[in-house]
Amino acid sequence: MKNNYDIPGLRVRLQSIAFLMTQDGKNKEAHDEIVKVISGLSKIELSDSQLAGEEIFGEIEAAEVKKVSRKLKLWAKRPSQINSQILTAYLTLKRAGVKRVTEKN
């Protein structure tokens, strides 16, 4: 997911704020503009943190899938192993149409 930040827009706003700060009687206007820029920056920070979280989750998920894939290959080669027997029983029950598989099935 790519974010489209209005960095150039924020830069222009900051430049106009700097100009307003040099003018007498423009303090309130400058303050209002500063609040808007801070709000824009907060949105960028929030988007960045969400994006970082998604990237980290995706990396963890990919590592888990790789690990499970590796284990499934081992279990398939060792049908007497308890993990293989549990998986086979689960898949048999699911194929038979059992909606909820529990230890009692």
Question: What brief labels describe this structure?
Answer:
105 residues; mainly alpha; 0% strand; rod-shaped
Describe the structure.
This protein is mainly alpha-helical. The chain has one domain (about 5-95). About 75% of the residues lie in helices and about 0% in strands. The protein has three helices and no strands. Helix 1 runs antiparallel to helix 2. The chain is rod-shaped. The model has no long low-confidence stretch (mean pLDDT about 80).
Based on CA atoms alone, the radius of gyration comes out at 28 Å
How many independent structural domains? 1
**Continuous helix count:** 3
- How much helix, percentage-wise, in residues? over 70%
Q: What secondary-structure arrangement, pairings included, does this model have?
A:
Layout: H1 7-21, H2 27-77, H3 82-95
Helix pairs in contact: 1-2
